[in-house]
Amino acid sequence: MNLKYLIFFVAIFLSSCTKSNYDVVVVGGGASGIASAIQSSRLGSKTLVIEKSDWLGGMITSAGVSALDGNYKMPSGFLKEFRDSLVSYYGSLDSLKTGWVSNIMFEPSVGNRILNKIASSEKKLKIIFNSKIDEIKNEKDKWHITLKSENKLNKIQAKVLIDATELGDLIPILNIPYSVGMDSSIMYNEKIAPVNTNDIIQDVTYVMILKDYGEDVTIPRPINYNREEFICSYDSKECYNTDLKLWPKEALISYGKLPNGKYMINWPINGNDYYVNSIEMSEEDRIYHYEKAKQKSIRFLYFIQTEMGYNNLSIDKEEFLTKDGFPKIPYHRESRRIKGKVTLDLNYIKAPYFQKNSLYRTGVAVGDYPVDHHHNAHPNYRELPKLDFYPIPSYSIPLGSLIPENINNFLVIEKSISVSNLV
């Protein structure tokens, strides 16, 4: 090859490959990912967020679950900052109380814009969207990451790496021990757990954000539609074979009512939950099942329009600006769970002061929600333990549950921390 052409191609390669150093790199710009990155930058660390989509917020924005749970009387930390930003946008705290599933309801696109606005004000924080990790390795106590972004390769070094992905994507790559599915009752001495371990995870959902169009916008009858699939989603007077509490159709719709005449459809009672354990699947298989989850939601929409009489409601194509109007990602309720320095099980939550280790003394976050697992879309759900709204007190998350046993300078957050399946 002519030397000048060789030099030319080398120059092109070098110009497309940049190298940057950071104190902290967070992989995943979901709810916990962006919150931790903002806090990291505020503490003085040069921080990078790597996000594979073009949105921030994960579950509460990109997945469309724009309804926050928690203790509304004790707002603090970044949750308070985010809530106050919503209040500033919508005008009052009461303006967020549009549905009955939560006291903090908002449009996903608004949540995304607020998170971007907060993040953009942090000088030590950088976010790279639409990016995926090509290679990752640890050498001499530093993380070396090769990132694919806009047809470019970015070489990144970091002192600390954080996995904040929806499914714990870095965990198997780094050979970190983890578990998937339900633990047996003897594993952590949790009486309400199943007798035997299994690989069953909670249902996923492709949420719909519907808009009131003020006229008949009934969609064409979907392929494979059968009204019987959803006849027990509400108190239809035609449902005779269910062990679930049924609500009036008005409650089903108002459950996820959002500001500005929109409705979040994330209905667990014979609604649009879909069962698949996609955690270890190939990308091709995931896409196949996520499309099936979307089709189930479309069938449910048709049922809402034709059987419940809400033909004025349909998908808001402007909310996510995706081709089909669906959220950018499905709602994942469950992920891989690492084996951490400590494991938070149900006993540490029910009776924290009477356990072998005082994990409550090392709390770095708080939680306030009952055990509430979604398994109704599983074909054998009646054989599984009933895990809806099992009461527990408020609790704290110990620091050790974020730290894997066998690797340094690496933290795991989001849904992949070291906890039992029930927790």
TrEMBL record:
PROSITE patterns: PROKAR_LIPOPROTEIN. It holds the Pfam family FAD_oxidored. GO terms for molecular function: L-aspartate oxidase activity. Signal peptide: none annotated. GO terms for biological process: NAD+ biosynthetic process. This is FAD-dependent oxidoreductase.
